[in-house]
Amino acid sequence: MTVRPAGADDVLAIAELERANLGDDAWSEALVEEGVTGNLPTVRYLVAQVEGVVVGHATASIVDDVAELQRIAVDAAHRRTGLASQLLDAVVGAAQEGGADRVLLEVREDNAGALGFYAARGFVEVDRRRRYYRDGTTAVVMRRSLGRGCGASDHGR
């Protein structure tokens, strides 16, 4: 398994992962292409490959001292293999390199698996956004400190 920055050849695979994993909340192929090709300068796309096939991706926006994990998606056949953890580690590394002191994310309040995944990796709940998703589900806002600045004393991992 390899995690690397996404390139133009990965747009279709990322868009397919979006549709398969996020349904109505999936980003369009055109929006993915904008981000992958650098037209959204704060956005970074990473892909996970197994035997040359893209089976996961992560998207983050890094602006000044804040990184926001916008997406993590792994093909159903490759879940529970550590790919999401490796993608998250790569996002955290990119955030640190970009000067961020924290990573923020939103996750559906009804997604117990994702909430547990992020909590086990040092994320803590800091807020909720009511009716955030198209179907009206609330988003749980989570933060992980990167060891300096914002919240470093409560979870400096």
Give an account of the 3D structure:
This protein has 157 residues and is α+β, with helices and mostly antiparallel strands. It has two domains: 1-100, Gcn5-related N-acetyltransferase (GNAT) (Aminopeptidase); 103-157, no CATH class. The chain contains five helices and seven strands; from the N terminus they run βααβββαβαββα. The chain has helices at residues 11-22, 29-36, 83-97, 112-119, 152-155; strands at 2-5, 43-50, 53-63, 66-74, 102-108, 124-129, 139-145. It has a seven-stranded mixed β-sheet, sandwiched between helices. The longest helix has 15 residues, at 83-97. The chain is globular. The two termini are 24 Å apart. Mean pLDDT is 91; it is low at 152-157.
Walk me through the topology.
Layout: E1 2-5, H1 11-22, H2 29-36, E2 43-50, E3 53-63, E4 66-74, H3 83-97, E5 102-108, H4 112-119, E6 124-129, E7 139-145, H5 152-155
Parallel strand pairs: 4-5
Antiparallel strand pairs: 1-2, 2-3, 3-4, 5-7, 6-7
Enzyme class: transferase
Domain N-acetyltransferase: 1-147
Pfam family, one: Acetyltransf_1
Low-confidence stretches: 152-157
Number of helices: 5
CATH homolog superfamily of the largest domain: Gcn5-related N-acetyltransferase (GNAT)
* CATH first level of the largest domain: Alpha Beta
Total DSSP E strands? 7
Anisotropy-based shape:
globular
Question: Number of folding domains?
Answer: 2
Based on the coordinates given, report the CATH architecture of the largest domain: 3-Layer(aba) Sandwich
Q: Radius of gyration, rounded?
A: 15 Å
Summarize the helix and strand pattern as letters.
EHHEEEHEHEEH
Across the major sheet, the strand order is 1-2-3-4-5-7-6
